[in-house]
Amino acid sequence: MSTEEQPDRTPEGAPRSLAEALRTRDDRSLSALLRTRPDLITPVPTDLTQLATRAGTRASVVRALERLDHFALQTAQALAVAPDPAPYDALLGLMAGDTPDETVTAALPRALGTLREQALVWGPDDRLRLVRTARELLAPSPQHPSPTGLGPTVAEATAGMSPGRVQEILTTAGLPSTHDSVSAVASLTALFTDRTRMAALLSAAPAESLDVLTRLVWGPPYGQVTAHPAPHLRWLLDRGLLLPTAPGTVVLPREVALRLREGRAHRETEPLAPLLEAAATHRPQAVDAAAAGQAYTALTTVEELLKDWDEGGPAVLRADGLSVRDLKRTATALDVSEPIAAFWVELAYAAGLLASDGEADERYAATPAYDEWLELPTAERWIRLATAWLTATRTAGLVGGRDAKDRTLSALGPGLDRSAAPEVRYRVLALLAGLPEGTSATADSVLARLRWERPLRSPQTDPHSIPSTPGPGGPPRDDLRSRLAQWTLSEAEMLGITGRGALSSHGRALLGLPTATTAGTADTAVLPAEPGDKLPAHHQHTPPTAPLEPLGPAEQAAAAVHAARLLTPLLPEPLDHVLLQADLTAVAPGPLQRPLADTLDVLADVESKGGATVYRFTPASVRRALDAGRSASDLHAFLTAHSRTPVPQPLAYLIDDVARRHGHLRVGAASAYVRCDDDTILGEILADKRSAPLRLRRLAPTVLAAQTDPATLLDGLRSLGYAPAAESAEGDVLITRAHAHRTPPRTAPEPVPEGPPPPDDTLLTAALRAIRAGDHASTAPRKATAPAPGGSLPRTSSAETLATMQAAVLTGEALWIGYVNAEGSASQRVIAPVRVEGGFVTAYDHTADEVRTYPLHRVTGVAELADGTP
């Protein structure tokens, strides 16, 4: 019989199973259970018995254990090595030891309440039961030692031992012999759990024997011995302080270890979350300004990236993703490292601004949504990026690593989704939000806090394993959750959600948290903190308003509006002018308005970036503007209108000189030809040895023919220092404008959830109603009927079913029926028939809480309910 069902040992009135314990809960308690374990209603169970069964499955219990904090998990581990069932005092003794610990005593009810709420523990305080699956996962075994480091009990370790050997151990330990092994094991157990007698026994032990016990006491409890053990080991074996489990292997019994540990199941308990350590404290205004500067840099970086891919970006790898070479080129173009370039590429992809075009020669390019994004106000464009980052499961930090098949993970490629990423991002930012405004935390303290909150495995490890994990104070683990937290801290800074390591005001607003302005604490002075200073106690825990999960759509929309309102005044105003200099450069002292920036990008080349952008004018850049349809007069007028300084004479000469030669030569398609009214220029071209690859020959005094295509001919002549212009078949000059290649409409990639999402209130209400109704249908007392095989619903003939239905319509009584739907799924229902006609019964279905019509031929059986039940 399972640990959840032991009616013979359960006092009257106490729940005999987890299902009965769930039946004693109210709707509020059941709602809390289903919110924390949403896999339990996917799909909705038919009744509470099925809910309890699902709550005890291995996959569900593993998922629930992984979401426990360190102290709640330690409590579950202690229950796994406690007697089953265990009184509360025994659990407290395992957690606090023989010496009372006020902190543990105060925190244990909270941890036990968490385990009860998540249906991992049930029963009253005097009979606490850990669900069987959790006990199997956490209890010690030779293959999987307990996280507590405890071994098996004396009874378990001596299960295969001969009765004679057990009696020998009793005699050597100074205990009287017994008539059977059961009483002998009980006598030995009583000795090991008695503090006074155990102290007397150990006082006679050799020093080497005590050293062995010291090495085994905190685990692992197993050791190796030879066929002829040393005297100090023989002393322990003869008295049962070490018991053999296999040839050459001995174990320290659990009762002995607990007595040596002074009753504690854990070396150290962690009832409270680790404190966050302040790294530095800045004025909130300085934090907001730094974050706003980073936010604007993020926008310009994404624009620069997609502008560089305007005519079609890198090719898509056969296995999807960006090649290492293309990532390096992108990093060089953005003047950043490759990991940071991967972050910006993935961010644009997550925001739906970048995708593959899906053509035969598949390439990456901007989507139509990018053009719409460019038209948004600056703050709203940032909100789009920040929101996409918060909810994305794609993790740029994995780029360059290896997957399970030892294949390199590439940017924009498969295998980058990590379902834990959104939760970790929100949690890290929520921790920062719990600090005073303007205060940043050390990365080590943030990681220690996260390890305390989720001490079990990372999502990369085996989902069916429950490993032994070090406490928050132990050595740091390089698990995925810790790496996600580190990436979150750096990415939030690059994106402008944080500034100088502290959460900004618009970052708080984006998370739906109150800001200094909304809370009425603006301009509050914050004292500087020295690195390593611990925060006051009231700042060590996250405030109740800090979200642990992403906001809903409506809340997120409202938070985005508020964040945009806070960010807008912090962003620099775009300028409508530049400063022209005599060295053929133009200095933009700040961000430029879009029309001005777009024209300058064509007319000049960017030479350097920073607080100010420096553009350089060259013959090639001026020719590029002329090719785009601008005339020399247009360029002069443009520079005069947008320069705060006079147009330098060298720049004016450069424009006029390039314009004078631009279009003097005309290139068209013959294969290709060159024509010019000045035949001497054509003669110079033919005489130039560098024109040999173009294979030119004169057709007429003003026309040369080439055996190359027009594009190659244009490039070749420009390399010779000429400024040819392309012309159409009609002889008109072709204007070459920048071509913006766009993909077909694409949607942003959907996040990959780790499991079912938390149910909303509507789903919870409907699920609870269905579970309650189904449980009522399966447990409602029924009038005596002929017993059915296996205790299932009695089957009735069609005539009996019809007669019972018609009688119920007249009397208004409720019936218990079995029903098989069109898909062949059988269910039990409680209905109140209203009308029976045409082979159908119309009834109020208590299970579904609505009026439904059922075909009578699908009703497998019917029975009347006992008096007094609806």
TrEMBL record:
<feature type="region of interest" description="Disordered">
    <location>
        <begin position="740"/>
        <end position="759"/>
    </location>
</feature>
<feature type="compositionally biased region" description="Pro residues">
    <location>
        <begin position="746"/>
        <end position="759"/>
    </location>
</feature>
<feature type="domain" description="Helicase XPB/Ssl2 N-terminal">
    <location>
        <begin position="578"/>
        <end position="700"/>
    </location>
</feature>
<feature type="compositionally biased region" description="Polar residues">
    <location>
        <begin position="458"/>
        <end position="468"/>
    </location>
</feature>
<dbReference type="GO" id="GO:0004386">
    <property type="term" value="F:helicase activity"/>
</dbReference>
<dbReference type="Pfam" id="PF13280">
    <property type="entry name" value="WYL"/>
</dbReference>
<dbReference type="Pfam" id="PF13625">
    <property type="entry name" value="Helicase_C_3"/>
</dbReference>
<feature type="region of interest" description="Disordered">
    <location>
        <begin position="526"/>
        <end position="551"/>
    </location>
</feature>
<protein>
    <submittedName>
        <fullName>Helicase-associated domain-containing protein</fullName>
    </submittedName>
</protein>
<keyword id="KW-0378">Hydrolase</keyword>
<feature type="region of interest" description="Disordered">
    <location>
        <begin position="456"/>
        <end position="480"/>
    </location>
</feature>
<keyword id="KW-0347">Helicase</keyword>
<feature type="compositionally biased region" description="Basic and acidic residues">
    <location>
        <begin position="1"/>
        <end position="11"/>
    </location>
</feature>
<keyword id="KW-0067">ATP-binding</keyword>
<feature type="domain" description="WYL">
    <location>
        <begin position="800"/>
        <end position="862"/>
    </location>
</feature>
<dbReference type="InterPro" id="IPR026881">
    <property type="entry name" value="WYL_dom"/>
</dbReference>
<keyword id="KW-0547">Nucleotide-binding</keyword>
<dbReference type="InterPro" id="IPR032830">
    <property type="entry name" value="XPB/Ssl2_N"/>
</dbReference>
<feature type="region of interest" description="Disordered">
    <location>
        <begin position="774"/>
        <end position="795"/>
    </location>
</feature>
<feature type="region of interest" description="Disordered">
    <location>
        <begin position="1"/>
        <end position="20"/>
    </location>
</feature>
